[in-house]
């Protein structure tokens, strides 16, 4: 299986099933996957608490934050599991 994009690329991601905003049930953590391979994470009132690049392999996501730390998450059955959190996709 090939990665959808690599870190630091300008590749546009065309898979719509994960592009968009995912949030914890209480809405305090909001994680947005952008189609340009970037992500932003809001925590409470703090927008862009974290941001960086992400890379997708199947249902697995790896992150390279702009500060240098790495993280990972997985989509399973329409739910996103990330760093011990459970997030669901938000609809407009």
Please state roughly what percent of the residues sit in beta strands, choosing from under 5%, 5-15%, 15-25%, 25-35%, 35-45% or over 45%.
Answer: over 45%
**Major beta sheet, specifics?**
8 strands, antiparallel, barrel
- Rg: 12 Å
**How many separate structural domains?**
1
The name CATH uses for the topology is Lipocalin
Strand order of the largest sheet: 1-2-3-4-5-6-7-8
Low-confidence stretches: none
Could you say what the CATH architecture is?
Beta Barrel
Name of the CATH first level: Mainly Beta
Total beta strands: 8
Content-based structural category: mainly beta
Shape: globular
Helix content: under 10%
Distance between the termini: 32 Å
Topology as H/E string?
A: EEEEEEEE
InterPro entries: Atu4866-like_sf, Uncharacterised_Atu4866
Pfam families: Atu4866
Organism: Mucilaginibacter rubeus
Protein name: Protein Atu4866
Give the SSE layout.
Blueprint: E1 20-24, E2 29-33, E3 38-43, E4 46-57, E5 60-65, E6 70-76, E7 79-82, E8 85-89
Antiparallel strand pairs: 1-2, 1-8, 2-3, 3-4, 4-5, 5-6, 6-7, 7-8
Tell me about this structure:
By secondary structure, this protein is mainly beta. The protein has a single domain, classed as Lipocalin (Beta Barrel), CATH 2.40.128.290. The protein contains no helices and eight strands. It has strands spanning 20-24, 29-33, 38-43, 46-57, 60-65, 70-76, 79-82, 85-89. The protein has an eight-stranded antiparallel β-barrel. The chain is globular. The N and C termini lie far apart (32 Å). The mean pLDDT is 86.
